[in-house]
Amino acid sequence: MKIGLVQMNTQNDKVKNLASAEHLIGRLAEQGAELVLLPEHFNFLGAEKDKPQNAEELATSPSLSHLRQLAVDHAIHIHCGSLLERAGSDIHNTAVVLDPAGKIVASYRKIHLFDVEIPGGRKYLESESITSGSDIVTFTIGDITFGLATCYDLRFPELFRQLAGRGAQVILLPAAFTMMTGKDHWELLLRTRAVENLCYMAAAGQYGSAPPTHESYGRSMVVDPWGVVVAQAGDGVTTVMADVDMKRLQQIRTTFPALEHVRRDIFG
Predict the structure, then answer these.
(1) Domains and CATH numbers, the chain
(2) Which of 188, 237, 255, 260 is the most buried (most CB within 10 A)?
């Protein structure tokens, strides 16, 4: 399968963000992508105080409607990265996957919320506006099983081991990784999660500055089950595409069957 990654510089203008996503999705579709992965917060990235008014119910979301039409027009699967989902009085950071008919085939509410003070004194308090999810989510396209995770989830290996245990062969991770942590930890963590779980990791990131003080690292990439980076985006707004080779995955899992040696009697 050919997976395309979209690296965006999302701002607090939904109209412009959707236009940018449409252009980049079209580019990847022309190159033969069968599944396109957008970054976290693909349609809006701004101040915490502005999140509630930019949250959308999934059933009536204008942003998803836009992507639904693109999925149909290009006959591809589209992973929205994430958007702010309104569900009653709660707001979730939610990933949605659309099939080529524009139907939702999977949705995942981010489990681990980014409440961190990074070097330099900058604070991120995602839990001030976002309610965490609790469901572990996989879905299939043909014979391939995909797992879903988002950004800060990357630092919690137990989620990825659970996804692998449920059959995930490819894990899709949209992100808006900070510049400070990204330069030291982004590639390291992606390669580690791939090696630990003998799976492909496909990660699409935000890049650059966004209001009020967001600085995102970018460097979207695909890592194979041996920890080899098979495709990586450079700086800026761009796209990258890679082949996910199930024969290679099966060969690695057969010759190095570490997943069969997990002591579930001890660790669950």
Answers:
(1) 2-259 (3.60.110.10)
(2) 237
